[in-house]
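Before drawing any conclusions, I looked closely at one protein, both as residues and as discrete backbone shape codes, quoted below without any editing:
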Amino acid sequence: MQTVSESFSHVLLFACPQCGSPLASACASKDKNLEVADAHWFNPHCHCGWIGPVIGVQAVKHWVEPWNIPVKVGPDAAGTCDDERPTKA
């Protein structure tokens, strides 16, 4: 795990498989390419009560924003696209 001052925020929009409502999730990465977040598992929850894992490639929309706020990244950092645990919404 390392702290970086320049990274990217990957924002992903999913459709709830139960009611169809939009569900947003995000993760930080040193990489701008979409593949790192597309392979990441997220665990969003919906107001209808649905909670479950979704993989980034299932997103309806995925965009990337520069993130100039220091953030921890790597396989052991919560909220990073490299984290091996699902990110909570």
